[in-house]
């Protein structure tokens, strides 16, 4: 799959860049930069922690998105490339499990790509969980505001099945909305299925998925679980990013959000998402 990578400019001096942050002193010495650092350290050392909002109760959503941007800027500085966007908490199943009713956006990097057949490196992760998602690859740039599901779908080049591996840096996946935004929406890894559909050739609201663990079906959903239609989630992402002066670049991969609750993956387990048209996606815990 040919993907364009054109996000680098967004993490320099752009609206969410690092240059304006140093003056933002916060509760008990917390800053945007220190929060980003704490989360990256938790990821690198595989150690979960209590929510940042326990120590920094004033952390609001705007500031949390700045923490997220600072965290991504550090990943980019370490050589990762931004390759797309993920939505989180777009289905009722996810919202109910996490106790948060508001969708959010976060970023995908090339370091998160799990090639087909490569096991999930569970020993490098804290408490990985897997969730099935409908994935878009954009043929054109998509910039809000005012994007509708129809205009969003017109920018889509191909539709795929996917499995996302999430790995919250917070103990027991317990967090508030600003915490999970700051944590880049628990992002860890993702795998995209090899079947590609043109957007006009598939009814994504009706597209069904069976999620199984070691051959036992544990959950199921259709695309309608994601904001009524995954294109609504894509439009939501474009419009939300526009509020922060950002756009979805051509070539972006967009994970539209878990259709079902996520399942924990243990070493040796096999998790399969079986879609009606988009094929099967399989991951195995290493
Ligand atoms: C937050 C990440 C949510 C999704 O698809 O809803 C997400 C979490 O559940 O830890 O990736
Ligand atoms: Mg997800």
From TrEMBL:
<dbReference type="InterPro" id="IPR011234">
    <property type="entry name" value="Fumarylacetoacetase-like_C"/>
</dbReference>
<protein>
    <submittedName>
        <fullName>2-oxo-3-hexenedioate decarboxylase</fullName>
        <ecNumber>4.1.1.77</ecNumber>
    </submittedName>
</protein>
<feature type="domain" description="Fumarylacetoacetase-like C-terminal">
    <location>
        <begin position="118"/>
        <end position="282"/>
    </location>
</feature>
<dbReference type="InterPro" id="IPR050772">
    <property type="entry name" value="Hydratase-Decarb/MhpD_sf"/>
</dbReference>
<keyword id="KW-0456">Lyase</keyword>
<dbReference type="InterPro" id="IPR036663">
    <property type="entry name" value="Fumarylacetoacetase_C_sf"/>
</dbReference>
<dbReference type="Pfam" id="PF01557">
    <property type="entry name" value="FAA_hydrolase"/>
</dbReference>
<dbReference type="GO" id="GO:0047437">
    <property type="term" value="F:4-oxalocrotonate decarboxylase activity"/>
</dbReference>
């Amino acid at each position: 799959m040919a993907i364009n990578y054109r996000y680098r400019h967004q993490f320099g001096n752009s609206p969410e860049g690092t240059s304006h942050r140093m003056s933002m002193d916060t509760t008990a010495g917390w800053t945007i930069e220190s929060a980003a650092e704490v989360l990256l350290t938790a990821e690198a050392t595989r150690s979960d922690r209590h929510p940042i909002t326990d120590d920094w109760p004033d952390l609001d959503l705007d500031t949390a998105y700045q923490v997220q941007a600072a965290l991504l800027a550090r990943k980019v500085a370490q050589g990762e490339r931004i390759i797309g966007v993920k939505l989180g908490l777009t289905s009722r199943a996810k919202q109910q499990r996490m106790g948060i009713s508001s969708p959010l956006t976060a970023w995908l990097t090339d370091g998160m790509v799990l090639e087909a057949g490569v096991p999930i490196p569970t020993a490098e992760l804290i408490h990985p969980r897997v969730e099935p998602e409908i994935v878009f690859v954009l043929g054109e740039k998509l910039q809000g505001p005012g994007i509708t599901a129809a205009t969003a779908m017109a920018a889509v080049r191909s539709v795929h099945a996917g499995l996302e591996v999430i790995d919250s840096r917070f103990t027991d996946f317990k967090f508030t909305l600003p915490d999970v935004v700051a944590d880049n929406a628990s992002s860890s890894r993702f795998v995209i299925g090899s079947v590609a559909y043109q957007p006009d050739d598939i009814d994504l609201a009706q597209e069904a998925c069976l999620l199984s663990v070691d051959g036992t079906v544990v959950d199921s959903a259709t695309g309608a679980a994601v904001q009524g239609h995954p294109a609504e989630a894509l439009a939501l992402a474009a419009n939300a990013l526009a509020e922060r002066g950002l756009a979805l670049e051509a070539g972006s991969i967009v994970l539209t959000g878990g259709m079902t609750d996520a399942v924990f993956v243990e070493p040796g387990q096999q998790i399969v998402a079986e879609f009606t048209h988009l094929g099967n996606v399989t991951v195995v815990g290493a």
